[in-house]
Amino acid sequence: MKSSRDKFQGLISKGRVNDALKLAVRLCKQVPDSADNWLLQASASAQLGDMNNVVLCCQHVASIDPHNLSAHYNMAVALQHLGQFERALQAYRAALDIDIDIDIDIDSDNSQLLNGIALCHLRLGLTAEAHSQAKSAEAHYLKALEATPELASARGQLGRLLS
């Protein structure tokens, strides 16, 4: 028997994003306190370009699980797409605050977590740059590279900023 998540992924992989969204909405109604269901709805909404619904879904996830990194990060990206840079900065900072509370052992396989931290700093840098805050942007690009040294986009942004 396929799980709901497997069904969702199957619909997405077949390009049936609207059907995947309908499934996610139904799952959210059936189990409204499931952060995973709301993140599925946010994912389908993002693929359909409905950033307002992404924000709503991620806010709901954050209310269920305030330490959900995906909720804060995806909300920040959606807010940035909507041009709501101040709110995006708050959401990125909330995502970073979550990571700061986690003891990171660089020697273990924390690549996904470190990539998340790096992407948050990269986005904060881009947002700071959009607000003509060069020093803040530089600091965030450096933090992104500290977390994930091979992150080419952060290296490129930093090089461009400093040139």
What's a concise summary of this model?
The protein is mostly helical and 163 residues long. It is 77% helix and 0% strand.
Main features:
single chain; 163 residues; mainly alpha
Please characterize this protein's 3D structure.
- The chain is elongated.
- With 163 residues, the protein is mainly alpha-helical.
- The protein has 9 helices and no strands.
CA gyration radius, whole angstroms: 17 Å
> In angstroms, what separates the terminal alpha carbons?
57 Å
Averaged pLDDT, please?
A: 86
Structural class: mainly alpha
Secondary-structure element series: HHHHHHHHH
Looking at the structure, what is the overall shape? elongated
Helix content: over 70%
Stretches where pLDDT falls below 50 for ≥5 residues? 101-108
Number of helices: 9
Describe the secondary-structure layout:
Layout: H1 4-13, H2 17-30, H3 35-47, H4 51-64, H5 69-81, H6 85-100, H7 111-130, H8 134-147, H9 152-162
